[in-house]
Amino acid sequence: MRAHSKAAALLVSAVTVAGLAGCAGGGSDSGKTEVTWFKLTETAETANATIKEVIADFEEANPDIDIVLEERSTDAHKDALRTTLGTSGAPDIFFSWAGPGLGGEFIEAGASLDLAEYYEEYGWEERFSEAAMGTVTQYGGYDGVPYTQRGEALFYNKELFAEAGIDAAPTSYDELVAAAEKLTAAGITPIQFGGTVNWHVMRLLDSILETKCGEDGYQALVSGEASWADEECVTETFTEFQTWTSEYLNPGFISINNDESSALFFGGEAAMALEGDWFNQSVRDNGMDEASVGVFPFPTGTGRIYGFNENNYISANSEHPDEAAKFLDYITSEEAQEKLIDAFGSQSVNVNVKPEGGSELDQAWTPIFENATGVYMNNDQNLSLAQTTEYWRIQNLVATGQLDPEDAGAEFQKFIDQS
Known about the structure:
The structure is a single chain. It is globular, with a radius of gyration of 22 Å. Helices cover 47% and strands 15% of the residues. The protein has helices at residues 14-20, 45-61, 74-84, 103-108, 116-122, 130-137, 158-163, 173-185, 198-222, 232-247, 258-266, 279-285, 321-331, 334-344, 360-363, 365-371, 379-382, 385-399, 405-418; strands at residues 26-27, 33-40, 65-72, 93-97, 145-157, 189-192, 270-276, 293-296, 305-314, 375-377. Strands 1, 2, 3, 4, 5, 6, 7, 8, 9 and 10 form a ten-stranded mixed β-sheet that branches. It contains 19 helices and ten strands. It has two domains: 14-150 and 308-363, D-Maltodextrin-Binding Protein, domain 2 (3-Layer(aba) Sandwich); 152-307 and 378-418, Periplasmic binding protein-like II (D-Maltodextrin-Binding Protein, domain 2), CATH 3.40.190.10. By secondary structure, the protein is α/β, with parallel strands linked by helices. The longest helix is centred in the middle third of the chain and has 25 residues, at 198-222. Strand 1 and strand 2 (33-40) form a beta hairpin.
């Protein structure tokens, strides 16, 4: 197994660590082993409830183990990981996005336990797809256990589309722009975003980048093989992005968050939302008529689907790695995944669990995944933390008209070169 430094600390804030130090797994007054799990709060309340149900099932079958769940919003969760991993306040299990720009941050710092012995003990390699296993082995060991595989696409309100004279979901980028123009002419907000959380608006920028630069160009840029300053498609991307943010997004988007902007879609005040397959359950939980909602992939022209994987990791300094691994084995089992797939989305990480039945909206995701020729990943997972922060800064300057789109690529490349 790969050696990890148990003393590794990630951007540790002494005050925060002191407040969270009691979170580490240990024994309880009842004599049970407590396994702590730091996790992202799911968008849909039904999904949160299902997680608690799965935990209860595990605890019933394993009465000597208590799973102590701590859930936080996206940015609060990232902060909690950066201030606790590698310290006595670290959880036994932590959820993270699997891309090198997010999960990789913690793995490279030595905060993740290499799980090679548990992959052998539980036969996990046969449980997960080759693509999912790629997120586990990308750093040279066995880091993390697959949790979800996500696809992102455009949800649309069929009634608002019809009101604007749009009779079919766009299948090309030009058709998408034409739809946005028709919606605007009809007095309907084409698409909603919340700008106080940078990763939300980033989805639009990433998708336009894939559209304008193509699969090879996108990958060359995010991998550092091409210069953001030299590629004309980068200027085209930021120009298109500025058009969208100035003409087609909900007014005041820059000052609200993703939940507030999603309320516009649920309330019929915005025609589209660029969201993931988890949004199906949010549509239901928020009382929207499912029959009025459709979904189609962002029409980039490359055939790839926008998406990412999420994994659960065992902390390098967990005092209960065996119990943690036992729990991770259960939540990726067929029994647990049969429950989770209904509440979480259309795809299970367990290759033996397939989506069956479900609503028309649920079924709409199957051909999107099946027809995809690959995946282009969210750029906060492709880029390093520092690069992501700069990417967002430039994104926001262009969106608010403070930076000329023609200068955006060179500005980003200058940061990359200097760092």
